[in-house]
Amino acid sequence: MAIVCDYLDEVCRDTYRLAEMDFAADMPDGDVTADVLALRGRAAKARLFCREPVSMAGAAWFHQIVAAFRAYRPETRVEVACLHEDGERLPAQSTLFEWQGDVADLVALERPFLNFLGRAVGIANATHAYVAEARRFTQHTQILDTRKTLPGYRYLDKYAVLCGGGQNHRLNLSDGVLIKENHIAKLNGVREALAFVRANLRKDVPIQIEVTSMQQLREAIDEGCPLIMVDNFTPEMVAEACALERGESQIEVSGGITLATLGDYCRHSPDRISIGAITHSIKAPDLSLLISED
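Request: output the structure for the sequence above.
Response:
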């Protein structure tokens, strides 16, 4: 599947920067194990494969890791080829990458490379699981991420969500207005907050408001807010919310939803469900690199 992403330049930029830091931290004075075993000068090939089904995430940026590695170790002799496109769902035992080069370089690159790939594929896998569960109940509801990402990994993480079949929430605080509970309290209510934002916003960005009660939801719908986040609503409240006549307003469900409870919300077909866990509580997949000398 083709991944549509308008921030791929930022993904590649951050991958290179993070890889630079990773290599500097991992090899401040070389690889003493490879040195003592005299691995330099021995040619080898390797396959990087998955021991479980995975959603591919990394084809668009893996070359940045290799480029940073070559810059850190100018004597490097390593070539890496990706065999699949981002977004592909692959069965266990699939070969994701083929490597060739000097054994000393392959073993030095292995762990940093797997760190990046494991995080990205882990996020894509988690997203895929949520999307697949949602599709058991509805074709309508979209699964979104949040801003709960590691510093420096924002673009990488959000790109991985796309690879798993999810959608991105706003990338950052500059991307859109999200009026939250504290903002509403300061401005004395939902209607007042929306009116204030509309009167003072000088940037063409989406407007969203977070509500915590059915009364606030009705007020936001009456005001024609395009996107309304219902925060910590029970499934019963979501059912009531989705049954309302709401014109062009979309409803997004958020707050502590797990894979086990997702169906309780999806059966009512809200427009969107945002899940922080797909980026902040991931499980790295079982990936392995097998090296064979020529």
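The first strand starts at residue 43 and ends at 50.
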